[in-house]
Amino acid sequence: MTRTDSPRLVVYAGLAAIGLIAGLAVGRVELVALAAPFALAAAVGASLARDPQLRGTLVLDRERALEGEDVRATVEVSGGESASRVDVLLPLPDELSERDRRNPAGVRASAGQVELALRCDRWGAFRIGPALVRVRDALAFHTWEATLGAGLPLRVYPSVETMRSLLEPLETQVYVGNQVSRTRGDGIEFADIREWHPGDRLRRVNWRASARRGELWVNEQHPERNTDIVLFLDTFTDARLGTRGTLDLTVRAAASLAHRYLQRKDRVGVVSYGGFVSWLLPASGTRQLYRIVDSLLQMGIVLSFATKNLDVLPRRTLPPRALVLALTPLLDSRSTAALLDLRARGFDLVVVEVSPVPFVKPFGDDLSALSYRLWSLSREAQRAQFEWAGIPIVSWTDGEALDAVLEEVRAFRRYARPVRA
Amino acid sequence: MTVAALSAAAYGSVLAWSCLLSTRVLPLTLFLGGGGALLLGLVLSRGHDELLGSALLVLAAAYVLGLLVGHHSLDEAAPLVGAGLLLCAELATWSLELRFRVSLEPALRLQRVRAVGLLVFSGLAAASLVLVVAATSLGGGLAWAMLGSAAAVGAIALAAFVRR
């Protein structure tokens, strides 16, 4: 605890001394009377210099929250009997704000606690606290400053978009899932009928067709299989305007997609491809959802000029026949090259362009307008490059429903068939 | 803003009384008081709290000047002047504290008003007591002088201790 004395205490004692000496020197009692209030104030000030022995804790009502939700932080202070006022400041990261404008808050030392409603404006993993506390005596002659509580973890998860339908991969995997496969086998969904072969079970015989044709015919079904989804996130760079940016949109979209795909028992993996490359191998279940969201919270832009290619990724990160859903602002040629490489390797690839256009405001001058046009044209050229390679690419802007954007891809892929070289 | 205005009002009251004490040195009193007012203005408007002591000292000097030159009998308003100076300093300090945007409980303002009021009234009572003691003939001039000297030394020691 650090104590600071008000400079006016010295001023009061000094004025009192000057008044008393001057009174003695000139023999006027008025000067002593003039000095008396200051002498008294200095004496009172000196008597108030007792350490308040402050103790306290910082508590958050929960450790996890969703973007836009409120978290209640409580700073409890005790032991400050000799103090009069306690000021509490809880340093907050830019992504959190105090809703009631009560930070910093000044309360009576006897009040015991300060409650702050923290609004989670943006996703991320944060450490809240310790709280900075300033204690004063009744006349603010002395101030004590200390930190209270340890830093508490708070994870703010990105809000999830409502999505009615998802993109279906062109091919399914071999494990049981909710996705109707294009292949034929054991399942529920009717596919076709064929002639009976030895080994076919009796319950598969289509008696109506058999009676009409005079020989045994059996039903065939589409089996229900799971799919592998790889969310490929371009984290080379971020276009940002104020508190919003392309990385925020990317993370929100990735969280929404992972949530929905995992709900229907698919395996979902994540590749963060940027200055810092990280990955999560495809897996299914609630645990994988938490793993993905936690990895998304750690995601950030790491500037790097190193040339990277897909060889840095382990082979199991990109399983065969997986749908690779790339979320990219198309601001770095390295990610474009990597995506084209993925397509060349035969992956079922869909590119969602997280548009940086709303976050880029050109200046008013002609040169700026011209460079903005050139930049827009180069982006169009990049998109055309993807289309020529047969990769569906859609642009997603801030405020637009992701569902609507994916519907465009769905329409594009309605008659698509995998092509093997 | 209100607290700063009240502080300036307390300063103005003391200055007005100092001017009334003697008209012979009125320009010098006004000069000193004006200088002090300027310093107080810097304290209140710019937050230069280090100038507060100088502002009080200059105003006290203006009062003492008027007292020594023009007022040969006992000035019974001296305790009020002392209390007024203390009030001015306390309010100026409080107004500086209020410049920081801290969400305060209403009870805290009332608590501060009570504390400042109690301090100023206690100071007024102490100063009045000094005048009352001086007016009664208790005798023992040397003893009183020694007591006054000890008080002065004590005040200096306190200032030095706090500054350390």
Write out key terms for the chains shown.
A: 421 residues, alpha+beta, 6-stranded mixed sheet, 5-stranded antiparallel sheet, 8 helices, elongated, B: 164 residues, mainly alpha, 6 helices, 81% helix, globular
Summarize the structure.
The complex is a heterodimer of chains A (about 425) and B (about 160). With about 425 residues, chain A is an alpha+beta fold.
Structure description:
The complex is a heterodimer of chains A (421) and B (164). With 421 residues, chain A is an alpha+beta fold. Helix content of chain A is 29%, strand content 31%. Chain A contains eight helices and 24 strands. Chain A has a six-stranded mixed beta sheet with strand order 21-20-17-22-23-24, sandwiched between helices. The longest helix of chain A has 23 residues, at 366-388. Chain A is elongated. Chain A starts with a strand and ends in an 8-residue tail after the last helix. Chain B has six helices and one strand. The relative contact order of chain B is 0.12. Chain B is mainly α. The chains are: A alpha+beta (421), B mainly alpha (164). Strand 7 of chain A pairs parallel with strand 1 (103-104) of chain B.
Strand content of chain B: under 5%
Count of distinct strands of chain A: 24
User: Approximately how much beta-strand content do the residues of chain A carry?
Assistant: 25-35%
Protein chains sharing the most extensive interface? A-B, 56 and 61 residues
* C-alpha geometry of chain A: elongated
Helix content of chain B: over 70%
Low-confidence stretches of chain B: none
Give me the count of strands of chain B: 1
SSE layout:
The complex is a heterodimer of chains A (421) and B (164).
Chain A (H helix, E strand, L loop, with lengths): L1 E4 L1 H20 L2 H19 L7 E6 L3 E3 L3 E9 L6 E5 L6 E3 L6 E4 L4 E8 L3 E5 L2 E6 L5 E7 L3 E6 L18 E5 L8 E7 L11 H7 L3 E6 L1 E2 L2 E8 L4 E2 L2 E2 H18 L3 E8 L3 E6 L2 H12 L25 E6 L4 H12 L3 E7 L11 H23 L4 E4 L5 H12 L8
Helix pairs in contact in A: 1-2, 4-5
Chain B lengths: L1 H20 L4 H21 L5 H19 L7 H20 L5 E2 L1 H30 L5 H23 L1
Helix pairs in contact in B: 1-2, 1-3, 1-4, 2-3, 3-4, 4-5
